[in-house]
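Section 3.1 - Work completed
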Amino acid sequence: MSQVDWLSHLSQMITITGQLEVRCAYGAPWRLAWAQSAAHEIPYHIVLKGRAILEDPETETAKELVGGDIVLLPHGSAHVLHDGSGHAPGLTHERQGSAGWMLSENDSQDEHLDMLCGRFFIGPPHDRLIRNYLPTNLVVRAIDGDGKEGMRSALSHLASLVGLMRMEAVSDRPGGYAILNALSAALFTLVLRAASESEHAPEGLLALAGHPRLAPAISAMFADPARPWKLPDLADLCRMSRATFMRHFQDKLGRSAADLLTDIRMSVAANELKKPAMTTEAVAETVGYQSISAFRRVFADRMGITPGQWRRLAREGQ
């Protein structure tokens, strides 16, 4: 099994759509602030040219972004982007592009920034799975400092995707908005792939998937969550002792294998419960529960509502 397996299963499990909202073309000084996003939203920013400082007011941390950097905020955290000069920003001018996104500019001729800003929308209740297992901020570099494509395949694909998004953003051709939104959705998966393949994969699910010895376990759980996986089974897949597997898994993910398996099962169950023909008993069996009462108890504990309540909410939403 490969890393692509788990990522493909995750992408099929959680419905992700993307939307480009603003293209920022600023000269320094400039400053942008984003409030906490809704539970099912993940903001993203792509620095096409120039540099930006990303600040997280809650953790009081700052990170410099340069051309080619892509940042996702899986927890939807409030954040600030600025030029780093400390000077008061000038006035900005916004105008609606015919493609559906906003162009925001200022009049400064100093150090220039070109940046795309948008957000991903996650079909509920899968935002819980994303926020529990991805870091607060996720930054990958699609292009190196000289503007050349990275050597690794994931980075090369990201560079190509960002190039397409840039061309669509600066052009005014029919279908541009739809194309940009479709490319945004692909961006999410490519960023996760690139991050998991990096030498310093961020904490959580990506660090786990990027660990060559632990990757078989995560692929197996995503591919066949209904199977009655036991710790010895997963440890054998990774060619580790049970104690070594538990220690490495907990260290990389911050949670146990049983926690991850349960969350995967409940996400699959949430999708199955939307199907009118599927009874709750059938859904329970589909995700590996022989006891309907046990399934209802775990679903309510993880999702905050009962399977029946979720089914009704999903039906009303549709």
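Second construct:
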Amino acid sequence: MRLATWNVNSVRSRIDRVEAFLTRHDVDVLALQETKARDDQWPTMGLQAMGYEVATNGYNQWNGVAIVSRVGLEDVTPGFSAMPEYGDPPVREARALAATCGGVRLWSLYVPNGRKVGDPHYDYKLAWLEALRAEATAWSRANPEVPVALGGDWNVAPQDEDVWDMAVFATSTHVTEPERAAFRAFVDDGFTDVVRPYDPGPDAFTYWDYYRQRFERNKGMRIDFVLGSAALSERVVDAFVDREERAGKGASDHAPVVVTLAD
């Protein structure tokens, strides 16, 4: 079984690339983030013709997550029980979606960016991560036999090598100790970064800003991850970042992350 996660940065703009990616890597299940589409705007026809089911969670042109699966799509759950709200008036943003696909409980996650240290969005990000950790850990411990994959754009670079120059990010979000501690809390609870052992750093980035040819100069960040429960981690036999998908005209600013599981 092969699963993947990808911040697609507008699914309506890149549906052709999504379909080609699924075929090229023979992907069974794909978690998508930043889809930027309401549920009724989703371009599902081609995916359905390819044999995929689609679950979406999108309210407007911002955020949005989805799961695309050809191995079943059961117990679809948008959000999670204690997910914080944000905005004025406060709302639960479309940033999380879970489903069981081929026996794997997959979460598609678009963690809040945080904007800048001290911003209310930064506090929201930390609260969001803590609420997610509590929910995912409780679910996994209640169902230890079920493989759990927490896949998505985490908007955290947990190690110094996960950014192209720590000096540039010294006062920025994504690398602060509270954010990194929030990420480590998942590891402390038994989840494992299942990709890094197969595609290690340095420079194993998943995101490159469009600004000033950052991709061509490899000035990127590693912020997209699949964290697996023990039941999932023991089945991983390969993983990689598809950096070539970031190249070319019309690419997302993120590269997909692909994980292969033994049967």
